[in-house]
Design brief:
heterodimer, A: about 400 residues, Rossmann fold, 2 domains, 16 strands, about 20% strand, B: about 325 residues, Peripla_BP_I (chain A), amino-acid transport (chain A)
């Protein structure tokens, strides 16, 4: 570590002196598997970045406790090389290149943000390095990249699930109001819902996007109020959703069903809103009450839950789980390929079909995880409960 | 930096330029990326220098021009325009945009102009972000990837960026020695007086503003082709719009070499602190900037240029900041 640090210092000094840094690059012996990860440790996505890092660290501890990953007839320990990309797209691309050329990592994981995933994936694609994303939706996978894989299931699965469950709980639901954040993932969740709701025979009485950084939703809320919807559906990140929920209460906007994507999946959302979070529904890619078993280092959902809780005092959400799953995916693919050759590991990833604590993982042609049965949750009594799928449901849906 | 004679300065610049240009042969792609970043910011800094340095108008619209360049370049490429033509188209569009905008916004002065120019970044970002049918809105846009392996892409982008930097430098030299440069400096010192002695201040300011946008447009378009994906948040980043003036101030505003010295130094410092002080790099960098602005208000080249150009009054320095 110290040696690495001093080499880095030396390297930067060389750089500052005149970009002669390349001369300091030392050859990397293949005595460990190196996985590179740009993380958003500061900036807008810092809280997600911290969760990602925590999950990575837990996985790393467990995998190295069993001696590492089996590569052919050798067992190699794993080294994670992480950097903070400061939630900055230019930095993310730069880091991906640094990790590949300078730190000589074998494989990459993508940062949390969708756009940043695309930027790093473009670099990885150029170098032919397999990269596993922890939070990527359909638009991230539309560039035909061969080396990009994502542990999340397609967003459309979330929409279909919610329509089924909510229409069963309230068969007379007719009018839906949709407010979405104009940003890759929240936007696709809004537009998919508009399409899905229309197909299901609902009338979309309000359908607008709000720009990134909106600090006041009063206009949107007032318009929605005059449309008197049965179902209010809002997408965004936690800070946006908390603001919308507060302003909805201030302005007296109510509906039998209120859905926020993906606020209630996060503990912070419930903690900040308190009673205002009650009965808000959401869908998520993963919830700790959906118990799975697998032959990964965690083994069961419960073991993962306990470990995250012990390490951070927080209940894990899909960010933790999906991040750990990304590394498990890489591990399984390396074991399957029996080599660190990137093309072979890529091929193993395309053929992967595994069961993990996170649920089944099997990639579609575009690299998304082809998983159905995504949990639909509701906040009841200050706790998230699972409404569907039936096999893991823990409560009945409550209407406002 | 000790005072260098003029030929020596050109020699130093040529050396720096050559050093950046040979990185693909002597160093890895990460270093090449740093060299690209240096060239890119040098071009942006040289651009800003026209309006912020020569004319002393504290413009914060760099990110607007850069982002527009990204989008025009990306959109034209997606509609079948060949690569280089798309870059030129972006350049033309952004320049025309700046010229048109300049006729309105350059009526503002001092702080009002600064705020107005920063608002432009926000407005353009919102327009691009809301115009989803054309720009993909918050989803961003995929840009056709440059063909070839990573080494080839890196060196291509590097030489294109270096080319833009060189053109921006030549433009700076020409402006510096022309009537336009003289006029802009007069405006910097006292706009009313300049107007009185027969300088067409409005025309000069618009020219300066348009020049400050021209290369930003090209850089944006090339950047878009390089990264392969753009979105409104990263293209119109406020950080970019603040960084570029800081670089110029660091090197010496209104000078010919200042922007290049400032951009190079800033990028390397940023790289150094970021690599070694992960947690504190922003704070350290901020501290250095504050220090430099306080103790070297006219930039690193201050000593060199004190005699060449008329010394600025303290009031002008504040305005330039």
């Amino acid at each position: 570590m110290q040696q690495q640090k001093s080499r880095r210092l030396l390297r930067s000094a060389a750089l500052a002196l005149g970009l002669f840094a390349g001369l300091a690059g030392a050859a990397q012996a293949a005595d460990a598997i190196r996985i590179g990860s740009p993380l958003a440790l500061t900036g807008a996505l810092a809280s997600e970045g911290a969760k990602q890092k925590l999950a990575y660290d837990l996985w790393l501890k467990r995998i190295n406790a069993v001696g590492g990953i089996q590569v052919g007839d050798r067992k190699l320990p794993v080294e994670l090389v992480t950097y903070d990309y400061q939630t900055d797209g230019k930095r993310a691309g730069q880091l991906a290149e640094k990790l590949i050329t300078d730190d000589k990592v074998d494989f990459l994981t993508a940062p949390f943000g969708s756009g940043h995933t695309k930027i790093t994936a473009a670099v990885a694609e150029r170098y032919g390095v397999p990269i596993v994303a922890v939070a990527s939706s359909e638009p991230v996978h539309d560039q035909g990249f061969r080396f990009l894989f994502g542990t999340l299931a397609p967003s459309s699965g979330l929409i279909d699930g919610m329509l089924d469950v909510f229409r069963k709980a309230k068969p007379d639901v007719k009018k839906i109001a949709i407010l979405g954040r104009d940003d890759v993932f929240p936007k696709i969740m809004a537009s998919l819902m508009a399409k899905g709701a229309e197909k299901a025979g609902l009338s979309v009485v309000y359908n607008e996007l709000y720009p990134v950084g909106t600090m006041d939703h009063a206009t949107a809320i007032t318009s929605m109020k005059s449309a008197a919807p049965d179902w209010i559906y809002v997408t965004g990140y936690t800070a946006d959703l908390v603001l919308v929920a507060k302003q909805m209460s201030d302005l007296g906007l109510k509906a039998p069903i209120v859905t926020m994507i993906t606020g209630p999946a996060y503990k912070e959302f419930v903690d900040t809103l308190g009673p205002l979070a009650e009965n808000i529904t959401s869908a998520s890619w993963w919830h700790y009450s959906a118990a799975y078993e697998g032959d990964d280092v965690f083994g069961t959902t419960k073991a993962f839950y306990d470990e995250v809780l012990a390490a951070s005092g927080q209940e894990p959400d899909y960010v933790h789980a999906s991040s750990a799953a990304a590394l498990i995916t890489l591990q399984k693919a390396i074991e399957k390929a029996g080599t660190l050759d990137r093309e072979a590991v890529r091929k193993a990833l395309t053929e992967l079909d595994i069961k993990t604590f996170y649920g089944p993982i099997k990639f579609r042609a575009d690299g998304l995880n082809d998983n159905r049965d995504l949990p639909i949750i509701q906040i009841q009594g200050g706790k998230p409960v699972v409404l569907a799928p039936a096999a893991i449901a823990s409560a009945e849906m409550k209407l406002n | 930096m000790p005072t260098l004679s003029r030929p020596l300065r050109y020699a130093a610049l040529a050396g720096w330029f050559a050093l950046l240009a040979v990185t693909p042969f002597i160093a890895d792609n990460y270093t090449v990326r740093v060299a690209i970043t240096v060239a890119m910011y040098s071009a942006l800094a040289l651009s800003w220098n026209f309006i912020g340095g020569f004319a002393g108008y504290p413009s914060f619209s760099t990110a607007a021009f850069f982002g527009l360049g990204c989008y025009v370049g990306a959109l034209s490429q997606r509609h079948g325009v060949p690569l280089v033509l798309a870059w030129l188209l972006a350049t033309l569009f952004v320049t025309a945009f700046a010229a048109a905008l300049g006729t309105i916004i350059l009526r503002l002065k001092g702080h009002y102009f600064a705020i107005g120019s920063i608002a432009i970044v926000e407005v353009v970002r919102l327009v691009i972000s809301s115009w989803g049918s054309l720009t993909g809105g918050g989803d961003g846009l995929n840009v056709p990837l440059l063909s070839g392996g990573p080494d080839r892409v890196a060196s291509t982008v590097l030489y294109v960026m270096l080319g833009i930097m060189l053109l921006a430098f030549i433009a700076t030299l020409l402006v510096d020695r022309s009537r336009l440069g003289f006029g802009l400096r007069c405006i910097n010192q006292n706009e009313d007086a300049a107007d009185m002695v027969g300088i067409d201040t409005t025309r000069y300011k618009i020219l300066g503003y348009a020049l400050s946008a021209l290369f930003c447009g090209t850089v944006g378009a090339v950047y878009a082709s390089w990264v392969g994906y753009i979105d409104p948040t990263d293209s119109f980043s406020i950080l970019l719009t603040v960084k570029v003036p800081v670089m110029v101030l660091l090197g010496g505003a209104g000078t010919v070499f200042g922007p290049i010295v400032g951009a190079g130094l800033f990028v390397l410092l940023e790289e150094f602190f970021w690599a070694n002080f992960l947690e504190w790099n922003r704070a350290i960098l901020g501290g250095i900037i504050v220090f430099l602005i306080f103790f070297l208000p006219s930039g690193i080249l201050k000593l060199d240029y004190r005699r060449l150009f008329r010394r600025k009054s303290p009031a002008d320095r504040v305005e330039a900041a």
